């Protein structure tokens, strides 16, 4: 259990005082994958670095399982750090060491014998899918493989917590998904708590179960991922969610404008489906009930999250206004969110 | 006894080859011994400079200032003046001011600060993320120095000592001219002062070969160590 209590961090710069983190209260349960999302400069990096003492808060406290990290120094702090693994955007591997030696590095630091460290490292290389590449140097690996080494290295001392600092931001979409799958797999196999920071909502949706949104050093919104996706309250959250659910919002707007010009009589509606609704033939049921309506699909997509699917569909309905009202009411009855974008 | 035409360079019959071999060994000995001491001292000083940079502790800041001053002062003194300046200290330290051993203190004191700056620069050029990763694993400062800073900057440290050694070879010749032995001594006394240009030419060629060998060995070592590309 990780607890941030009234955590604030300020930096003194020549331009004045900067509030990197402000009044953050956050609890993270064991075994969860907790995503912290925000644009760069939002303070998320500073916040997670407090968990292993790379940053210290100006005020407030950070507890892990009742141990106050803020108060630790010297040997106690270093021992605590052995229990927290961390992976980085740019991997931060030692280029002078092979894959196996890189994974052995934290074990050497913790004072394990070379034979034990080697055995453990071989096992971990296998776990992250690098069997056969143990003797390669980082320069001979792809970005995804480098991050796998980073993950194996972070797991070497059997940590309870894994911190991920934009770990997939330097990877292409395909590799990002592979690395995220690996993190999810490790979370389930080892019951590891993962705290990940990212500026990509896609990452949150794919593996996180809880999310906190940060802006200007403050947590502006937090909760279960599906909850936040369904009903984003803050403007910044809406921006993140929209980026993710309708990546081509601009295209859609253009298409809507064209259709409005072409079919001035139509009504254009955005439908949002959650969870099991996305699997049901709701639209076809609606058409059976209101057979005189014509329906034109403009754009649609469905995203799988850890807690279910989210779908979004843009349709144009033409026909008798009374029928259209009836159809919309029918959809609302089935708890599909409808938003009328234009009406003649 | 000698004419000074161009032909004088090729009167190899005037060359005492036994002397030439002895002088070559003296130059090599001077170069290698001072290189080893300069490498150790330079890395120690460079580390000290690196580790004491940007400290908030006023005592550490003072230490950084003193070391930096020492390094800058001795790097600025022309070598030939440094030898003369250090004569009393050399007398105390080595017991003599003549011969190869007497050249060691001034060679080391002039080259170590030069190398220390290169070492400091090599550490500063390391990716800070790697050091942060080691810190996040709970590494001590000493573990970071031993397992991160030194191995990760090794190519720069080796090419730095190669450059330093090559200027050391130049310095040994200069030191030789004022009595430290070696090829410089031979070229100056038996060559120049005795109007025997063949000896100067042969000594020069040998020095050039020594420089080439050190450069080659240095490049080879860097190529072997560097796994970045």
TrEMBL record, chain A:
One of its GO terms (molecular function) is ATP binding. The keyword Nucleotide-binding applies. PROSITE patterns: ABC_TRANSPORTER_1, ABC_TRANSPORTER_2. InterPro entries: AAA+_ATPase, ABC_transporter-like_ATP-bd, ABC_transporter-like_CS, ACT-like_dom_sf, MetN_ABC, MetN_ABC_transporter-like, NIL_domain, P-loop_NTPase. Residues 2-241 form the ABC transporter domain. The keyword Transport applies. Keywords: Amino-acid transport, ATP-binding, Cell membrane, Membrane, Nucleotide-binding, Translocase, Transport. This is Methionine ABC transporter ATP-binding protein. It comes from Lactiplantibacillus songbeiensis.
From TrEMBL, chain B:
It is a multi-pass membrane protein. Belongs to the binding-protein-dependent transport system permease family. InterPro entries: AA_ABC_Transporter_Permease (IPR051322), MetI-like (IPR000515), MetI-like_sf (IPR035906). The chain crosses the membrane at residues 28-50, 62-87, 156-178, 198-218. It comes from Lactiplantibacillus songbeiensis. This is Methionine ABC transporter permease. It holds the Pfam family BPD_transp_1. SUPFAM superfamilies: MetI-like. Coiled coil: none annotated. PANTHER family: ABC TRANSPORTER PERMEASE, D-METHIONINE TRANSPORT SYSTEM PERMEASE PROTEIN METI-RELATED. Residues 24-218 form the ABC transmembrane type-1 domain. Its main location: membrane.
């Amino acid at each position: 259990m990780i607890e941030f209590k009234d955590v604030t961090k300020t930096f003194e710069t020549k331009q004045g005082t900067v509030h990197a983190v402000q009044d953050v209260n956050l609890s993270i349960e064991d075994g969860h994958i907790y995503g912290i999302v925000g644009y760069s400069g939002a303070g998320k990096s500073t916040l997670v670095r407090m968990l292993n003492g790379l940053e210290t808060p100006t005020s407030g406290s950070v507890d892990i399982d009742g141990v106050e990290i803020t108060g630790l120094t010297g040997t106690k702090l270093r021992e605590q750090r052995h229990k927290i693994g961390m992976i980085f955007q740019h991997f931060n591997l030692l280029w002078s060491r092979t894959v196996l030696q890189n994974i052995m590095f934290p074990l050497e630091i913790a004072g394990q014998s070379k034979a034990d460290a080697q055995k453990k490292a071989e096992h971990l290389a296998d776990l992250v899918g690098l069997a056969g590449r143990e003797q390669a140097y980082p320069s001979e690996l792809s970005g995804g493989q480098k991050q796998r080494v980073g993950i194996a290295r972070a797991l070497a001392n059997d940590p309870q917590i894994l911190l991920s600092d934009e770990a997939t931001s330097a990877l292409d979409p395909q590799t990002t998904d592979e690395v995220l799958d690996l993190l999810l797999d490790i979370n389930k196999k080892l019951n590891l708590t993962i705290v990940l920071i990212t500026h990509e909502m896609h990452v949150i949706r794919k593996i996180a179960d809880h999310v906190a949104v940060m802006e200007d050093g403050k947590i502006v919104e937090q909760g279960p991922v599906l909850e936040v996706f369904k009903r984003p309250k803050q403007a910044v959250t809406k921006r993140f969610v929209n980026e993710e659910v309708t990546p081509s919002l601009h295209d859609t707007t253009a298409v809507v404008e064209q259709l409005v010009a072409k079919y001035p009589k139509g009504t254009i509606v955005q439908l949002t489906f959650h969870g099991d609704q996305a699997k049901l033939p709701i639209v076809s049921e609606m058409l059976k009930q209101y057979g005189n309506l014509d329906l034109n699909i403009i754009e649609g997509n469905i995203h799988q999250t850890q807690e279910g699917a989210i779908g979004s569909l843009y349709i144009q309905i033409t026909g008798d206004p009374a029928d259209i009202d009836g159809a919309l009411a029918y959809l609302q009855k089935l708890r599909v969110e409808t938003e009328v974008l234009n009406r003649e | 006894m000698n004419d000074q035409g161009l032909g004088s360079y090729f009167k190899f019959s005037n060359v005492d080859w036994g002397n030439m071999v002895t002088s070559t060994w003296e130059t090599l000995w001077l170069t290698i011994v001072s290189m080893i001491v300069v490498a150790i001292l330079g890395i120690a000083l460079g580390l000290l400079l690196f580790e004491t940079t940007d400290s908030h502790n006023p005592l550490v800041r003072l230490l950084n200032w003193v070391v930096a001053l020492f390094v800058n002062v001795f790097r600025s003194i022309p070598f030939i003046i440094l030898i003369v300046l250090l004569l009393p200290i050399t007398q105390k330290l080595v017991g003599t001011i003549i011969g190869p051993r007497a050249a060691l203190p001034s060679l080391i004191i002039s080259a170590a600060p030069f190398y220390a700056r290169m070492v400091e620069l090599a550490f500063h050029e390391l990716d800070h993320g790697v050091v942060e990763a080691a810190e996040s694993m709970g590494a001590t400062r000493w573990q970071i120095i031993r397992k991160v800073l030194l191995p990760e900057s090794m190519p720069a440290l080796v090419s730095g000592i190669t450059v330093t050694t090559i200027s050391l070879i130049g310095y040994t010749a200069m030191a030789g001219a004022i009595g430290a032995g070696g090829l410089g001594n031979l070229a100056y006394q038996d060559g120049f002062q005795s109007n025997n240009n063949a000896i100067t030419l042969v000594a020069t060629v040998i020095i050039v070969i020594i420089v080439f060998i050190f450069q080659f060995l240095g490049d080879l070592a860097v190529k072997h160590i560097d796994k970045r590309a």
